[in-house]
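Hey everyone, long-time lurker, first post.

I ran two proteins through the pipeline my lab uses and got sequence/structure pairs for each. Pasting them in order. The first:
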Amino acid sequence: MSRGLEILRIALVLVPTAGVTSMVAAQPRVVPTIVEQPRPFGYVIGDVVTQRVLLTTPREELEPTTLPPIQRVNNWFVRRASRIETAPDGRRWLAVDYQLINSPQALATVHLPAWKIEDKTHDTQFEIPAASLSAAPLISNSSSSTDVELRPDREVSSLSTTSSRAHVLLWSIALGVILLAWLAWLQWRNWRDSYNRPFARAAHQLRRMDEMAPEAWQTVHRAFDQTAGRVLQTDTLPTLFERAPYLQPQRAEIERFFTQSNERFFGAGVQNNLLSVRALCLELRRIERQHAQ
């Protein structure tokens, strides 16, 4: 008899415990989900805002048991139509529209309430958090302008400039190398031209000569011949100006040079009023350089 009473007492203790356990197991689990909230500012009475809830997750596909009903959710908003949309990337979203139905007397922060949606296939509830929005009156009240409720400043995250500084330094070094290379090429070109152009080469050779010596005159003659592309005489000078018209400003001095050269080498000899072959050559080198640039 006593053993039967003990068994009955244990049964009475276990039955309520099993009931509580079954009730706890029946409660759906609540998990957060991805929600796109409307922009947090710039609303007046009558505006419609949209909350979008992601139904497609990497692990599961949410299928709501019912769509949120059309109803007033607080003093500021009424919930309007709800719909399921499919984005171009294939993800499904639950879009819920709310309309602002009251106008504050001054700029104020109003709230969309938090709510939950239940998945009919996974026994899960998804939490949609509340959202804070700024609502403005249709007509501003100047007397309360000093009491305007403003949103707090958004904190600006600091950006690392280490990589940018490294890039600036690298490109600065590259620019410096390019400029140095360009200057070196310019110097080399000027040095090369000083020896390769006819009158530049002649002017360089005249530095070591007496300009009254026959060799100095012959050096200038060779420069004229190289410029014209043929051996020049007084009667063939037009060929020089056809080949090098940029020498026209010095035509009178060039003709004088050829006339005095003929008299010196094939005529009466040295004259008293000889021109300076060095000065003529330097002037022709200057014209030659300007034409080449």
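...and the second, right after it:
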Amino acid sequence: MDGIVPKVRFADKRRVLDRMRRCREAGLKGRYLIVVNLLSGRSAKQTAEVLGVGRSTVYRVARRFREQGEVGLLDRREDNGQVKLDERYLSDLHEVVRGHPEQYGWSRPTWTREMLVRTMRAQTGVTVHVATMSRALRRIGARRGRPRPSVRCPWSQRARNRRLRRIRELLETLPKGHVAVYEDEVDIHLNPKVGWDWMVRGQQKDVPTPGQNEKRYLAGAMNAATGELVWVEGTRKASDLFVQLLGKLRRTYAEAKVIHVVLDNYRIHHSRITRTALASFDGRIVLHFLPPYCPQANKIERLWEDLHAEVTRNHRCGSMEALMENVRRFLRRRARSAQRRTQRQAA
């Protein structure tokens, strides 16, 4: 033991133990733990096994403690010169990662750490190692994930913003006795959509599929002010499904003077059947169409995302009826949650 760490007085050992307990820096605390274990009589092999570190690390820390005492345990990287991962570097890296490689002259459409190292060197003049880039990405909260596919709106930016502004002003200045809802349809498939899940090393979970797919469709409306839900089900995604929802909205909001429906440009919303039904409602239901391909402006889309995440993705239901019962249970739970929130706000 004398060749690994020197013998120290009991008071010095207590001081090292006390400083280890008060230490908040992970790396320094790990080095203190190595020394404490060695001073307690454990061998280098035992210390490495207990702490889960390499034996060479134990010997290196012991040598620094033997030659310099506690000072040898301190992080010596501050002597390396100017810190590379400063706030400016991290801020620039954040903007680069938010963009696309093509914007910086790359032909590859996805980022790699090596590409980020070279791009940041061109942007800032600072060169870092790939491992350092990994730390920098963690510092800015970057993660690897699946991008969301999207289609560009064919309208000009001015026309798109004008339509969105008009709808936003309607919702913010809704006349007394009027109601506004966000409307959309969603497909429910018996063959489950496969999504990410946690798995242990060496495992790939199975998602059993019935083989013969079945489909059901929901048309839903979410109150823009309260989050209250109204929905109908059908076996076809047709005009009849949408008209059925409009009829249920009339019954649900029987006291409303006008029901404003914010929705997308799907063809069943423009069909002759729909126009005929609207004419029979005597102006009590007014449709407000969003610009094409603007799902982020339709707040009920988030509800459908939650529905897929909590019910349909990777589901293990053997029948459509079992799956639909889970869907209904989810929607009823969300409806009750919105109702309780409205009651709390009114109290």
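Reply from user beta_strand_b:
Welcome! Quick read of the second one: The mean pLDDT is 91. The chain has three domains: 10-79, 82-139, 157-194+209-346.
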